[in-house]
Design goal:
Blueprint lengths: L35 H37 L21 H12 L12 H16 L2 E4 L4 E3 L2 H11 L33 H17 L1
Antiparallel strand pairs: 1-2
């Protein structure tokens, strides 16, 4: 039984029989056989993992689809996957257009606009006109009423606005100027071209009926 001489230099120490044997590198390549057992075990474990993952994915997909079918109901011609076709406008089908309009009513806002937004803006201004031009309750329990804007302007012209107290300003520094407020030329509100065209068409129609 050979031993390791600790008194020898590190580069000349020789391991005993219980240590690794010397490697013959004269051939220039590994001469020992590769252990096939480790490779077989790894490939087997990998195949089992892939199979288990596939089964789990299939089961989860079935559960999700069953839950969606239960909540959404059975498929119909409106819920089936549409065939891929070339880009273009929707066909002029009253049934399809009515169904799309019915579906979009259930969507939460903001909804996808079916045109360039002119009709939505016109409807918004119409709702604003109802508030600006008519009396309406703000809080009926407290007797608060919203009055038309024309009447509000008349009351302000009669009674005036409350005058704010003068605020003391610090002395201006060199080359500073007293700020001035410019009165706007308009109120900032204007009808869109679409609304103006609608009003002109309605006026022309009324003239024809007169």
């Amino acid at each position: 039984m050979s031993t390791l001489d600790h008194n020898e230099p590190d580069d000349k120490k020789i391991l005993g029989s219980h240590g690794p044997s010397e490697i013959d590198a004269s051939a220039g390549y590994e001469q020992t056989d590769v252990k096939v057992t480790g490779i077989v075990v790894f490939l087997t474990a990998l195949a089992i993992f892939v199979a288990v993952a596939g089964i789990l994915s299939w089961g989860i997909g079935k559960v999700i689809n069953a839950r969606m079918n239960k909540e959404d109901g059975p498929n119909s011609k409106w819920t089936k996957t549409a065939d891929v076709r070339e880009l273009g406008n929707l066909p002029s089908s009253p049934e399809l257009q009515n169904k799309v309009a019915e579906i979009t009513k259930g969507f939460p806002t903001p909804r996808l606009q079916t045109d360039d937004g002119n009709q939505d803006i016109s409807d918004l201004h119409a709702r604003e006109d109802l508030l600006l031009e008519n009396y309406s309750w703000v809080d009926q329990s407290q007797g608060k009423v919203r009055i038309p804007i024309e009447r509000a302007m008349e009351l302000i012209a009669q009674k005036g606005l409350p005058v704010a107290q003068n605020v003391e300003h610090a002395p201006l520094l060199a080359q500073d100027k007293q700020p001035t407020l410019a009165v706007p030329l308009t109120s900032g509100f204007a009808r869109t071209g679409y609304e103006q065209d609608q009003a002109a068409a309605q006026a022309a129609e009324e003239r024809q009926h007169q």
